[in-house]
Sequence to fold (675 residues):
Amino acid sequence: MAVVFDKTKGLTEKEFHYCPGCTHGIIHRITAEVLVELGVLGDAIGVAPVGCSVLAYDYFNCDMNEAAHGRAPAVATGIKRALPDKVVFTYQGDGDLASIGAAEVVHAAHRGEKITTIFVNNAIYGMTGGQMAPTTLVGQKATTAPYGRDESLCGQPLKVSEMLATINGAAFVERVAVDTPANVRKAKKAIKKAFECQLEGKGYAIVEVLSTCPTNWGMTPVDAITWLRENMMPYYPMGNLRNPWEVK
Amino acid sequence: MAKAKGKVTFDEARCKGCGICVTACPVGIIKLDTSRINVKGYHPATVDEMDKCIGCANCATMCPDVIISVERE
Amino acid sequence: MAKVLMKGNEAVGAAAIKAGCKYFFGYPITPQNEVPEYMSKELPKIGGSFVQAESEVAAINMVYGAAGAGVRVMTSSSSPGIALKQEGISYIAGAELPCVIVNMMRGGPGLGSIQSSQSDYFQATRGGGNGDYRTLVYAPANVQELVDYTMKAFDVADYYRNPVLVLGDGMIGQMMEPIEFKESEKMELPEKDWATTGTKEARKPNIVNSLRLQAPELEELNKKIEAKYKEMEEREVIYESYKLEDAEIVFVAYGTVSRITKNAIDLLEKEGIKAGLIRPVTLWPFPNKAFAEIPATAKVLMSVEMSQGGQMIDDVKIANEGRLPIGFYGRSGGMVPTPQAIVESAKELLGGVK
Fold:
């Protein structure tokens, strides 16, 4: 028998601290696999966010930089401008990217910075215990929206991919999910294209990954996946929203 | 056409008993072993009927802790 | 080498480039706009990179990234913009990265005015970001010093792996003076083997990071950083003592105000009053040892600052150790003290202590 699946060298040996069933683990893995498959692990420099995945710098087996909350696209800009031959990526959650970091991601896309963002959208603030995020759904409960997100006070959830897809400098924008093996494989393909977009020097690339947070949604990991499918997917449609250079 | 023969190995000490692999397995042979707990205190994922494994790697694809390795003929 | 007439803001840029800085990230704010404008014009000529960031916050984070990648990098701003950078500066210090930050001070607080002030002394020397950290602060008094200390700042930042602040004001930024680029003593600087440059799969990953979730580890980091500050206090203090001999009154002033104060000293001398000046060039570390040079003839100290209540005066009090009475003269809001006003205030102070 041949080994057909083994842990990628793109990840370190360190055990993930994430909650049982947290999809960060899947997304870390497919991102790391892509870096290895593209042969760029030795040139990769990742920027970790503030959020559950703040410790991503311990898990990716490449040089890493821990950024302030929301600032990863600016930090990545500094790195990529200094070292244009390196493969620079940010890995951010929805609080980091869509709340405090909204300006940074918009302007990195606007300038067409040749960096790649993995955006983990689980519609809640994980690390700090379940507060409302810009991506929390209307009616969804959170510790700072105990009666459920009220559209009249907080607006509707932010559709980051649609918003960034209006920006010319964003050369690749795709939304995927990691709820089934088939979708995980599609997500990996999208992430690969997002890195190829950088390697081809086309501009800013982002993959929004619909993800779960079993702990703060108050569900089992398997139920959380069902909740994602039934509630997040109708609001956040999957698919490619921008690929003008037809990165394959 | 004969089904592929597969074999999965779990790094049991790292399993958090999340159960996602159980639902991901198309031949339903993964279960959480409720008769024991691992060093972390979780019921680890395990396979009793390994002869039914088709080596599809769906379980490994979904495992958030990357504890599964898959072999196939 | 022939001297060249340059505006302060442009001279800062030219000095940075001479020091090997090829990366600049900044944002427009009066009275320092010529700094990003100059860098936007010159950096492409030398294969460097200029970004007008979306905000001062973004700019300091770009500095953090580039510094972590091992290059010499600078940002500039003015008071309200420097306030925005405080988080980033704390992260840069915590991650032990080198960089140069230039502040051309303007009136505050808040949006304030666009004319000069010295009301960011606390912000510069006490640090507006969180945590136990310091930035070394140079306070040039003229455009030549602006050039010299900007160039030195890059070496010192690299040596200590810490941000260095060059504190000017609107006047220094806008004035034109003849300058030359001196070949200064180069410091022995170690390789930046800690930088995120890509592992090439040939070494362990480098991690640029200020987070240490285990408190004992964070304490170790803080001890390491504190040791650097102790070394700076030993080795990096720079000041000027001017006409201290037999002085009855010793002024303490820095930057452009020190030049005005020297004029006041000349006027006082004509009236038969001996006055001297201690001019800190490093505001942090503050030149406490300069105060040992104060002659026995001195009856009083006076801190002169473009600040309403005074900020450097706190450090003057600490250095004074309760020996002499301390007076203060200041203007705020962008107003500039005149030599005559300083003279009147000094005479009043001396009259009070006779």
Remarks:
- Chains C and B do not touch (no CB pair under 8 Å).
- Chain C is about 40% helix and 20% strand.
- The radius of gyration of chain C is 21 Å.
